[in-house]
Amino acid sequence: MPSTTRRRTLQRVATLLAGVGLAGCSGESSSTYPPETTDNVAFDPESHSLRSSDPGPILWSGDRPTTQPGTDDDARRRHWTTRRFVADADDAAAISIADVDGAADARDFLDATDYDAATVYVDQAGIRECFTQDLCHVRWSETEVDTDYARYYRDADVACETDARDVLVTLIRIPEALDPDDVSSYGSSRGSGTCERSNEHLRRRRNRSDDGGAR
């Protein structure tokens, strides 16, 4: 059963969410300025997500990294926030995945990628326990990557605490063989609007740009 704290929170925000659009939601929206030269875009790209309430990393290469003794769980989750690429079969084989739901499917996702034509972008970060998110689109160039997510409350029958955090990793298959050493700029946005609304907003912006800014 959901916690009492969450039930009250859901009641408070239900009305607000109906009119919020692409703006932030209860502190759960975050963004950085998106790269301006990302010429390519994939709407609803092929992806796979893994989630864990354990504060340790979900995905890593080599020995599993650790934090200093005495580090609190929230600091550990922040420590595992990372962006990286899987660019070839050797990279994929070197990756270890924590024993979480969907780990076998994530391994299949990595192994099934044609790295001559695609690159897997790994976005690992913390997320509040009562929230989940959908990947709306990814934009990229040879030097920049920008992701957009729609974040919303999990189903009411999912037990959670409003101040607790999980670790969430999203594997995104970018349909181009990128050189990770050339990528130096990243952007990401998360809001309470739907992916349909966010994607339509981007399509309109791109159409206006193609038309030279005409409205």
Automatic annotation (TrEMBL):
Compositional bias, Polar residues, is annotated for 27-40
* Residue ranges, annotated region (Disordered): 24-75, 179-215
PROSITE patterns in the record, alphabetically? PROKAR_LIPOPROTEIN (PS51257)
Protein name as it appears in the record: Uncharacterized protein
